[in-house]
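Quarterly update from the structural biology core.
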Amino acid sequence: MHASLSLKPALDAIGTAIDTRFDRLLPVPDDARAPLFEAMRYSAIGGGKRMRPLLVVAACDLFHVDRERALRVALAIECIHCYSLVHDDLPCMDDDDMRRGKPTLHKVYGEAIAVLAGDSLHALAFEILADEATHEDPFVRSELVMELARASGPSGMAGGQMMDIAAEDAQFDLPTTTRLQQLKTGALIQFCLEAGAIMGRVGESQRKKLRGYAKDLGLAFQIADDILDVEGDSSRTGKAVQKDADAGKATFVSLLGLDRAKKQAEMLIDQAIGHLSGFGQEADLLRAVARFAIERDR
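Predicted structure, tokenized:
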């Protein structure tokens, strides 16, 4: 069966669960803050693949973590992802008009509210993780906060975005482009898997397998994005295509060629699934996510 078909029920379920929790967390107040909450809801509810939340839940399922607690961590990572997209779309960054098939946040609410909405989603992520409802052990909550902060900041996503900005004026080689994507995309994906291990309080040997899976999946996911930027249809992807080529940025496709990039992505997915060989059926969802990463059309 095509991975996207086998994964659809899980993606639909996680999407509904995340939307329900955002709706509950972000009621619009009857005061001057209302536009900020409306903007946060516009960004967070009803869009995206919800791949990162699904990875968190799938990793937590490996270690029989309570589903409601797992969904809280999933919600936190989606807060970070949504904030990053809001800021990434701003005129001072990528200056995009469309995201998830609708106008970008700053096009609807203006740049100032978009900045505040992104800032607020960022803060909300850590508020969720630090709450006792996520885990009764303060050391577990502290480790979650530390790892998400590291994955989001200059040693992770923000550092990768800085490299991406620098790529507009420099011709990056393959190792540098790989490093860029490991930070910009891969760091948050690695957190998703690490979070399951933290919540399950498992040892280093188990974590090492999950880190290997996450590293290979993150790179394959980005290569697939680069391929979609060349071959994709904006009506399916929900955002502009051919952006990187127009900006003159090095991508895995421009550096490897289309056919070789596709083969590299397939090899990485095989490796990612190989890291799960020590797990049984409880890892089937992670295996399906890996296959979906390179079969998707958006």
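The radius of gyration is 18 Å.
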